[in-house]
Design goal:
By secondary structure, the chain is mainly alpha-helical. The protein is about 60% helix and about 0% strand. It binds iron/sulfur cluster (2 copies). One iron/sulfur cluster (SF4) binds next to loops.
Length: about 350
């Protein structure tokens, strides 16, 4: 488990168990869920539709053997069922606001019963944008539920009526891979449900989603030109686990994701000019488009790298990048190359 997330989770579990620290635990849990949910937001906002039904670890043991779409569906179906059928005893979010129809899911269950290629086929049917809105609505509704809880509510247990209600809802498949969930949930008190479906379960599946997206980016990079259009090196980029590179469908570069159409202004301009990258442009030195906007503190470092490519070619450029990374510890090239593109070019040439 991610060390930071594991520590945060441990602290919340510890704090929630004592009345004196219960309210603090609730606040920490809400903050932690926000942090975890941001990971899902970045994935949904950054990746192409096809990413959500790929199974790059098909057949592996573990949550990463699923798809991105399945993971989102599964986390929030479980939370929705537990929060509304068991704790709040009101209507599930899936059935309000027509989420089920909008997502176009063929099932209302948690998905535990699906195996192998059925997971990919199921995932391909889902409208991911609507699924994301559903996940967000479930998260917000549960946050409110958690905030309303009192310390004494944590000890509340569930009886046979709750068990029957869960069975009657048909939201848990009768398949042996799924049905055990009902006994598992009913064996817990409210505190136990907070500790699993509302927190630890998120961590495990979001970590699996990270593994899936890292793998998808790696696959996307295979055979793609590692020199970014603006002059950066995708092979050396600190966003390598998030971004497949601006020459692939997995382009999660900030200037692409911030553009309305999802295409980086430098990429668009190079396509229009029919050139391979900004290094082939005569306006490079004075350009202020996209990555080169003066407010971007990496603009001049990128420009210097483009000038280097223009002078010495991509092969030499990738070599100098490797040498810089071997020599210095840095994430963004401007940390080494600074803010003046002429000086930055000199540093590159000196290395
Ligand atoms: S953020 Fe830019 S430089 Fe980094 S991998 Fe993506 S396209 Fe390449
Ligand atoms: S004008 Fe700017 S963004 Fe367009 S190709 Fe030239 S350097 Fe790149």
């Amino acid at each position: 488990m991610d060390k930071d997330w594991s520590e945060k989770n441990k602290e919340i579990q510890k704090f929630i168990s004592k009345e004196a620290t219960f309210k603090e635990a609730v606040q920490k849990l809400i903050e932690f869920r926000k942090e975890l949910f941001q990971q899902i937001t970045w994935i949904v906002e950054g990746y192409p539709e096809k990413a959500f039904f790929q199974m790059p670890f098909a057949g592996a043991r573990g949550y990463h053997s699923k798809t991105l779409a399945y993971s989102i569906w599964h986390i929030f179906r479980i939370e929705d069922i537990v929060a509304h059928e068991m704790i709040a005893e009101d209507e599930q979010i899936l059935f309000g606001e027509k989420y089920l129809e909008k997502i176009a899911s063929p099932i209302i269950t948690t998905g535990n019963e699906l195996e192998g290629n059925d997971i990919a086929e199921f995932s391909e049917k889902l409208n991911v944008q609507e699924l994301y809105l559903y996940a967000k609505a479930v998260k917000e509704s549960t946050d409110q539920l958690i905030l309303r809880l009192q310390y004494k509510d944590l000890k509340r247990k569930f009886d046979e009526d709750t068990r029957k209600k869960l069975i009657d809802s048909k939201c848990v498949s009768t398949d042996e891979n799924a049905f055990w969930l009902i006994d598992y949930w009913c064996g817990k008190d409210v505190k136990g449900l907070i500790q699993m479906p509302f927190s630890r379960h998120w961590i495990m599946h979001i970590e699996a989603m990270q593994r899936i997206k890292n793998r998808l980016c790696k696959i996307a990079r295979k055979g793609a030109d590692p020199v970014a259009i603006c002059g950066l090196s995708c092979n050396h980029c600190f966003l390598g686990e998030w971004c497949g590179g601006c020459r692939t469908d997995y382009n999660v570069c900030s200037f692409a994701t911030c553009s309305e159409d999802g295409i980086c202004p430098n990429v668009k301009c190079c396509i229009k000019k029919n050139i391979d990258g900004c290094y082939g442009c005569t306006a490079l030195e004075t350009c202020e488009k996209g990555f080169y906007v003066p407010t971007n503190d990496g603009a001049n470092a990128a420009k210097a790298q483009s000038l280097y490519i223009r002078k010495y070619g991509k092969k030499e450029f990738l070599k100098v990048q490797t040498r810089l990374h071997d020599k210095y510890d840095f994430e963004k090239t401007q940390e080494i190359l600074g803010q003046d593109y002429k000086e930055a070019l000199r540093i590159l040439e000196d290395n």
